[in-house]
Amino acid sequence: xxxxxxxxxYKPNMKGTGSALNLDLSQNGLFLEIxxxxxxxxxxxxxxxxxxxxxxxxIAKILLGFKTLREISIFHNPDARNQIQGERSKTVNxxxxxxxxxxxxxxxxxxxxxxxxxxxxxxxxxxxxxxxxLRFAIPRLVSWERVEVKGRERIEEGQDNSQxxxxxxxxxxxxxxTKVSKEExxxxxxxx
Length: 192
Description:
The protein has 192 residues and is α+β, with helices and mostly antiparallel strands. The protein has three helices and ten strands, in the order E-E-E-E-H-E-E-E-E-H-E-E-H. The strands form three sheets. It has a four-stranded antiparallel β-sheet. The chain has a four-stranded antiparallel β-sheet with strand order 5-6-7-8. The longest helix is centred in the C-terminal third of the chain and has 18 residues, at 124-141.
């Protein structure tokens, strides 16, 4: 199965002060990218985007913000382990506006004394799609095997469910007790 691994929100406006946001899931992680609209055009300046690599805690914070409508803040210091600590930092802030009925996400990038900030409104429909992509990313980023347990039969992602069910039906129609072999016993997978 092929999955689309990114989601982009475009918010151009007539003043040329719009912005665009892209969530990109790759083998290297989940990246949040944001950029400004090119003034006077309906194009976006992806060459000058701000990129933040989201870790699992960052993803959880954003999901929590969507769920609780609370304001969230993420701070990254890419130079934390270098001698030039504090010269560069990235921030992600998101809050829900009751007045406008949408979330507002702002990403900042600071280099020494220079600060660049780009914000974008995210409506509720876009938030639902972002929520799904963020939830999709978590098990892939930590390589958890997705397992669905039905009765005592183990069904792995991509396995044809009809194969498991047909074996159980065949055993019942022959008057046999349905038994599940050791290799079919469900594996309990927990993130905790």
